């Protein structure tokens, strides 16, 4: 567990460090991508209804067709503003400027042609209307001016207080030049505000300055001034913090801004989200007064020819006047988007958190499963950022969370592929000769890196041994022929073990050790182990025939005939229990194997095949997991083996109930064997009940049959009965103690 935690930190910390360093040190490079990411979130959110009655009095194509090219006579706009006031407008903001006198004014013509008399001055008429209506003029700062230009400054109808300003946090936008309306109009206005917008590097408006400093005085934007005017607030506080401007306090309403005093606009949708009313319709009185009553009106243009078209996250052709409408609606509604001073800390926490979470997932789950989860993780991160932005109003970095996901996934997939290849090589090296190709594929596909680690699991172990191997060895003309003989035997035996899902652990001379249910799970492993055992015993029949016909082994065949046995006769022991499996050995030399008491008992059972003249011995631990009707069983003994105090039952399996391909391993008929087993088990019951004379009578009876299957077992029990009759045991429990291994 500790090593796994170390691995997680070993991968997660460097990836996090790289991302955080890039985040902190290279904002110039990634900010455009981050802005594009925010655009995606706006697009995903879609249109929302403006919350306040903000309208745009539009100098549109329809109005231009009616009045002619712009600029119009000032009396036209004067009439529009006057009619708006009559219909009960709350405030009118002009997103248009009048930096020059009206050339179409009658008094201008009179001056030009030297006409005597008094003629109307359109500028004075317009100024009078501005002075007597709730109109806020617009003007602009020349932010590109390199040197200060001494001009008259706009009126300051409100008092600005800069709270917390120091020489270290003075980031407010400063202008060196201002372009105002002509004095006749500017001096007659109640108030005015600048309508500068500040597009980002890509030319898209995302934030709007609320305040700009000029000649050491603070001036408010058109939108902020309109809200201030209808709110009746006389004093505006600029709140500074260590990072710059934190926000603007308008009465009791706090408006969060960035360090430069810019409001991050929460756009409602694409162009024409707010209600537009054509200027000519108002001029001609063709508007329902209810649309105007109590409204905040902005006079601007949507006509492309008048060059007030902007780009925003929603729309690349967006009337500039609607930017001010958005800011007004944001301030009045209070659904601000903000980047608080601690947002960098949150971004870093999110980046590091994503890296660590993904790294943990890659360490506890398979890579393929993590890839299946990845779309859901992406969706979760997307929803988290979306919720923060549009529900909590906090704008996080939109690039780095996804960059963290992608980069971490790529790096860990590469690392995982490297270790997977290494693991595959290790697995192939350890199991290529132990298990079937199918099992090998399962091991490789599972990607279980702990398969080699020692752990406990239930297995069924098998030990097999060739009888009379010493005689066989001595009968061989040379070592080469002996190896060839063993290979003839080992090959089919190994194929059968692998066929039934077993793992060949090792070859010990003429012996084979194998087990089931490791390294991968094997369903019904005791049954499959017994099936493989019986098939091996049957496989010895054609194998012996083949050996007898092979001239290489002629001496061995003669030897076996002389002894009255087959060239190859084997004994097999099976036991089921919980053992320790895993890679064991030294650093330079190790192997995947199994150890523990179940292994030792399996070896003892194989050795006892000679004692009981049995071909297949199994323990009660294995028998209780088998189907009773599938095999032909014989109880052999209740014993304690060397090194163990707890008694175990030893059972012999003669064969499958129906034989193998119609053939049985015993010489008698199935019916005769069953008759023998019935009498035998009757005698065993009497023996266990300490009725030795009655048991011995049956043992002797069956022992006289010519076709009995176990020549040694009856003699053994007759001998025991005679002993116990002569020396009656106390508290007899039927247990026989083996003091040797076989």
How would you describe what is shown here?
The chain folds into four domains: 2-30 and 340-426, no CATH class; 52-145 and 180-229 and 262-333, no CATH class; 458-584 and 593-603 and 616-655, Nucleotide cyclase, GGDEF domain (Alpha-Beta Plaits), CATH 3.30.70; 666-736, no CATH class. The strands form six sheets. Strands 19, 20, 21, 22, 23, 24, 25, 26 and 27 form a nine-stranded mixed sheet that branches. Strands 1, 2, 3, 6, 7, 15 and 16 form a seven-stranded mixed sheet that branches. It has a four-stranded mixed sheet with strand order 4-11-12-13, with no helix packed on it. It has 742 residues and is an alpha/beta fold. The chain contains 24 helices and 27 strands. The longest helix is centred in the middle third of the chain and has 32 residues, at 400-431. It is rod-shaped, with a radius of gyration of 49 Å.
What's the number of extended β-strand segments? 27
Shape: rod-shaped
Rg of Cα set: 49 Å
Quaternary organization: single chain
Distance between the termini: 43 Å
- Given helix and strand content, the structural type is alpha/beta
User: How many structural domains are formed by the residues?
Assistant: 4
Question: Which regions contain 5 or more consecutive residues with pLDDT less than 50?
Answer: none
The profile of the biggest β sheet is: 9 strands, mixed
Any descriptors?
Alpha-Beta Plaits; seven-stranded mixed sheet; rod-shaped; nine-stranded mixed sheet
